[in-house]
Amino acid sequence: MSRALLRSVLELRAPSSRIAPLFAPFRHIQPRGFNTTAPIVEPVAQPHVNNAPNPTDDQVRPLAFKKSHPVEPPTPIADSVKNLLPLLAAQPGHYITIHIHGFPYLVQEGDQIRLPFKMPGVLPGDVLRLNRASVIGSRDYTMKGAPNVDERVFECRATVLGTESEPLRIKVKTKRRQRRKRQAKSKHRYTILRISELNIKNLDEIEASS
């Protein structure tokens, strides 16, 4: 019994030849052949007929710089005012966009204007010459200024009818944690005008006045 136990202990201490080593010896592996592919050929830019590098009379302009208008746009008519101003003056029912202290008003002859302020230095019955207008027109024709129409083309006059005042407004103003109250009173006044005259001049009148 003891001999058998001793033999088993010796077998455990001695390295067994049956166990394979942890690291196998390095073996040289012959490399396999690589698959060869065809070389990549870059595409060569071929000149296109519609993409001429330097456009001349015989070649077409490049697509990126092609003109939006193949033909030059027509030039504006130099004498359009001479041709169309008599037609504008001949039609009845003229309208005008006048500017008074920066406020535009679209009016006709006989209309009333209530200015949002009291115009200083005027009295009821005074006649004012309005010489700033951006648009003058009739039913079929319109003349636009850049930014204003020449004052020699038209003649617009307004009569001061008087001054209107709104009802007295009282507003109570208070402050936080204060018992004091203050009353703010306001009663705005407005000037009323009436367009008494609106004429569109002809070329003869313009030349005579100039």
Secondary structure: elements and pairs:
Elements: H1 2-13, H2 80-90, E1 95-100, E2 103-108, E3 112-114, E4 127-130, E5 133-137, E6 142-144, E7 154-165, E8 169-174, E9 181-186, E10 189-200, H3 203-209
Antiparallel strand pairs: 1-2, 1-5, 3-10, 4-7, 5-6, 7-10, 8-9
Describe, in plain words, how this protein is organized in 3D:
Belongs to the bacterial ribosomal protein bL21 family. This is Large ribosomal subunit protein bL21m. GO terms for molecular function: structural constituent of ribosome. This protein is an alpha+beta fold. The chain has a domain at 78-209. It contains three helices and ten strands. The chain has helices at 2-13, 80-90, 203-209; strands spanning 95-100, 103-108, 112-114, 127-130, 133-137, 142-144, 154-165, 169-174, 181-186, 189-200. Strands 2-1-5-6 form a four-stranded antiparallel sheet, with no helix packed on it.
Helix share of residues? 10-25%
Low-confidence stretches: none
Largest sheet: 4 strands, antiparallel
Number of helices: 3
What percent of residues are in strands? Answer: 25-35%
Biggest sheet strand order reads 2-1-5-6
Over all CA atoms, what is the radius of gyration?
A: 49 Å
What class, by secondary structure content? alpha+beta
Count every beta strand, where a strand is a DSSP E run of 2 or more residues: 10
Shape: elongated
Cα-to-Cα separation, first versus last residue: 148 Å
Secondary-structure element pattern, one letter each: HHEEEEEEEEEEH
What is the arithmetic mean of pLDDT? Answer: 78
InterPro entries: bL21-like (IPR028909), bL21-like_sf (IPR036164)
Organism: Hypocrea virens (strain Gv29-8 / FGSC 10586) (Gliocladium virens)
Family: Belongs to the bacterial ribosomal protein bL21 family.
GO molecular function, one term: structural constituent of ribosome
